[in-house]
Amino acid sequence: MSNGKAFLNNDTFDLMRRLRDHATRRGNGLLFWDEITEIAASAELGLDLEDSLLMLQAARFVEIDGLTKANSAWRIKVRDE
Amino acid sequence: MTASTVEYRVFGHLAVTEKARDAGTCETMEADIAIVALGWETRFAAFENHLDLKVGKIVVLDFALKEANVPAVEENRRKLIAMGTRWGVEVTAITLEPSIEYQKNINLLDHLLTQMAASCGSYEGSLRKVFVECSTMPRIYIQWLIAVAFKKMSIQSLEFGYAEGIYGNAIGKEDFSSGLDRYVTVPHLQGSGGMGEEKVLLVGIGGDADVFYGLIDIVSPERISLLVPRSEKNAHIDALLDQQVAKVRETHRLEDGEVRDIQAFGLMAHLDAFETYLDGFGSRAVVNVFVSGPKVQAIAAAVLACSDSRVHLKARIPTSYAHREVSANGRYHIYRLIDLTSPACSLPGTF
Amino acid sequence: MENPFGPNRIEYESRPILWFSQKSALISAAAKPVFVAGTRGSGKTSILRSLSTVHILEDKSLADQVGKLGWYGVFFQLNETFSPLIDNAVLNLIPERIRFDTAAVIPRQFVIFSHYLELKIVERLLESISQLRRDSHLKYRASEDRDVALALHREVLHFIPQPARLDFFSIDELRGGITRYVDECFNAFFFAADEGATGFRATDPGAIINKVATAITPLLNGPSFAGDRAPFFKILIDDCEALTPLQQQFLNTLVRKTRGNVKWVLAYIGGLYDTIRTIIPGQSLSNADRDVENLDSVDPREFATLCENVSSLRLYYALPDHLRSDLKRNDALSAFSLKNRLGRLSVNDIIERVIISGHSEGREELVALADAAREFLSVNLRTADQQQFLLDRKARPYAEGLALALMNPEIKRRPMSKADASNLKRSIARKQGWAFLKACQMLRLHDYPYVGHQIITSLSDVCIRDFLDIMGEIFRRSVPSSSDPRKLVEFINSDLQIHLEQQRQAVNAASQRKLDGLQALSHPYEEESVRMVRALGYLTARLQTEFAEENALGTTERGIFRVDLKEMRSLVNRLEQPSGKLDEVLRRAERDGFIREVSAAGNFEVDRADPASKEMLIRLHRRFAPYFGFSYRGPYEINTIPAAQMVDLLFTRHRLPEDWADSVFKELVARPALKTEFQHSLFESDLE
Predict the structure, then answer these.
(1) Bridge partners, residue A63, by sequence
(2) Which of the two ends of chain C, N or C, has the fewest CB atoms closer than 10 A to its terminal CB?
(3) Cβ–Cβ gap C120/B286 under 8 Å
(4) In 10 A of CB C671, how many CB atoms?
(5) Where is pLDDT greater, at C495 or A2?
(6) Is A21 on the interface with C (CB under 8 A)?
(7) Distance between CA atoms of residues C351 and C449, nearest Å
(8) Is A17 exposed, middle or buried (0-12, 13-18, 19+ CB in 10 A)?
């Protein structure tokens, strides 16, 4: 956060939209870190993924479990509207 | 309040400190109760040259020695009562089974501690601090006390007193070991259970290395590591230890990193060495620890077992103990263990 | 430089070098449970470890050897804390009033046993799966993770407390719950009687494992896994001899009760695990229910291959990465050519080398015998049959010469038929071991040259650890520890035979060391093993080398000793030794690999724990051969040692082991009944 990289912008919202679509299609919105990197990569979004997710959590769009652990142990829940 | 700072280190959830002193002005030792194990060695009474016990009660453990009527034992008993009178502290003798009947004795001692907590405990009905004179106490009881204190959480802090001894020069390894042995797991310190991915054996050796061979057969470890206590005070013991180490190194093909010399009476030294060894073992290893050297090894091993669930602590129960004389050489060690997870540790006088 | 043949270090940083051998592959594909029997040093632990998925995926060299995984393996070692843990739980959970009613207690004990074991297995299984998911070896989705965890909790693990909020419930969280539950229920029993009892929830034995296996299987997809079919679940448990006899039956029962893709692999020390009984009346385990792999009776050729591969593997991985490109054969399993380095030497080759190299006495006699043999065979055999005797080799036919010298001179006069020729060949082949000893004796050698690939492999007695010890000694003499690692490359690349003298010294040192190790270990009160080894060693050597003319024939292969256990036990009881002491002595000696048990049928289904077992056939481990001077092969023939003599050797100890051996030898040789114990000679005319 200190380097000012994290902010909510179009790309972040784009990611959020894709996550929501994914959740709707699958019928549930629980994801591992690498599932999200796949989604982000397929859209060719040039984000810092970790910062973006933290911002989305701060904005209460997602909820992250296991924040204190490594990325591979995170579980990210897409919140309902 | 003394001006000198006392250095503590943390191992697991325990704060640990130690000091060594020579005979001279006695220092005050405060505790809820003191536990002393009656024995035949004259160093049993050495602590009167070092400490002024300010405790609620002195509990003396009599391992069925009354009937034996051994002069050396009775002399020690007399001395202890005299000490109690001098300090104005009640001395209560608890008659137990012979020390090798450890299971029965431990049950009795468990009840005893509950009673003592009720009558002498200064922290919310539990014992805040217990002083244990362990110079002549069998290792399994030392280790059980630590387990009861810091695993069962019944005692908030323990302080051990230990008098260094002088062994006669004509000692051979026979003087250290006593007969055919049983090996048992110290109650409460059996680790996380009987299934792991590899088995190792960590041994604090004493004058008789043969003492743990039977254990190797029971445990079948893939690796063995040694801690060798060195004191530079007795060349004969050192030579004996060298012999034993050479024998073990050869038969078990130990590599250099698996034999470590440590300061014979240093608690931190032992704990550091143990921890270094533990770091080298996998997270799913079963680490069997067995000690047979100076009592401080027993204390260190038990502290280790309290903080690392890979550790299974083993003890040896001999068929009998030979009565040999060990006199005090004037040096006295005090080892203090405080449970940092207990609110009592923030009370004044704990540290 | 560390000796690459030294004992393995199980350290976090440097994993032991595991090899996925043919045996491992066999076991991994087995559709039945597999029981693996072996002594210490037989490699059984390494085999089981090499099947553990976590181990495989953590160790690149092992992963490369294995390739795609068709199974998921979890590995455990039992230890001596296990039994008291269960017993303690039993004491606390079974009401006092029924404790003496065996029929009522045993099923309850079984429930407690399997409850604990299944939970520990599942705990590890779930933990390893989560770990592999984090490391991206598995690819299931977070939603699947949660669904499976919820399903398992609902179906079979409902007694594990769940958090209030289930949005993030996961396999990992379920696993944490299991750990806490087991701790509270089982470890707590050590503190106080009631503390754990309230939380314990019995489950139907086998149910937990079966349900978990079914639920987890869909998750097992990822880059390392073969995707073609549902993988087996291999539950790999080492040191099963740590269980009490009753617990062993419980485990067998559990093995029977688990279904589907759950496959058990149980390893134990041969003779110390009951491979047959369960607690279900009338239902024992038979060969239809499980395969039994006996590592101690493995085919010698298979063992020889194992030795080659393991030597090469260890040397290869001892080399720093950057030097591997200097290898002639840059492949872990074939970099080092054991056969070339030790030499494919026949007994004749070895004797020839000794004769050429020194000025031994007795050479003339041996050479004369060899020349006579060559002449005899070329005269009396048809050319076609001569081929099998390899007479054109560089070494003279010393073994043939010695063997023929024993034959009845009458036979040697007539021409030999094809059948005679085959018989002769077979007979000589069986005398190789004896010929070796006899030649050494005639040459007055002080230390016999047990060298070359065949002999060294034979001395190891299908015990990979013993083989590694010998190689370790050879390595130490060839590559000093202070050496530049480039010397290691040279050692590996070379195809030249290692100097025989170096091999000889190494083998003798290893043999000596094994005996020294035994002696150093013995507590003054536990001398039995040392005495037994020394006594049997001297006895075997004498039986194999000394003979009166008419007994010449069976001697080479003597060395199996029959002892009557029943009689020995009763004699021992009369001496007021603790009961079971005898069995313990024998068991320990076998467990440590000093003696080998040979059952008459050659199989290992003997349950020595069974007090009804009446007799035992034992021989010494062949690694003692160089020290005592007995044959590197066999033995095949049985002699009975009177029970009283064995008891005297082990317990009363009137004589030194050497003197005991002398006295027993005289007794055995004197008895005319001895002749009937010889196995049927393949060359019948010898007996005329």
Answers:
(1) A77
(2) C
(3) no
(4) 13
(5) C495
(6) no
(7) 9
(8) exposed
**Cβ within 8 Å, pair A32-C135:** no
Question: What's the pLDDT band for A76 if we cut at 50, 70, 90?
Answer: very high
Tokens of A50: 């970790």
The answer, yes or no, to whether the previous bond of C245 is cis (omega within 30 of 0) is no
Query: Of the candidates B187, B193, B196, which has its C-beta nearest C186's C-beta?
Result: B193
User: Does the distance separating the beta carbons of C78 and B191 come in below 8 Å?
Assistant: no
Q: What is the DSSP string of C400-467?
A: HHHHHHHS-TTGGGS---HHHHHHHHHHHHHTHHHHHHHHHHHTT-SS----SHHHHHHHTTT-HHHH
CA B71 to chain C, closest CA, distance in angstroms equals 31
How far is residue C336's CA from residue C325's CA, in Å, rounded to a whole number?
14
From the list A26, A70, A72, which residue is nearest C143 (CB)? Answer: A26
> Tokens 């693996």 appear where?
C36
User: Which residues from B are below 8 Å from C12, CB to CB?
Assistant: 279-282
pLDDT tens profile C474-494? 998 998 877 788 899 999 999
- Each residue's pLDDT tens digit, C326-383: 999 988 888 999 999 999 999 999 999 888 877 667 888 889 999 988 888 888 777 7
C-alpha to C-alpha distance for C95 and C91, rounded to whole angstroms: 8
* The token pair that represents C312 in the structure block: 């090469």
- What six digits make up the tokens of C189? 């029993």
HSE-up (13 A, CA, CB side) for residue A26: 17
CB contact (8 A) between residue A73 and residue C135: no
Reported ipTM: the value is 0.89
Neighbours of C435 (CB within 10 A): 23
- When the pLDDT of each residue in chain C is averaged and rounded to a whole number, the result is 83
Q: Is C165 exposed, middle or buried (0-12, 13-18, 19+ CB in 10 A)?
A: exposed
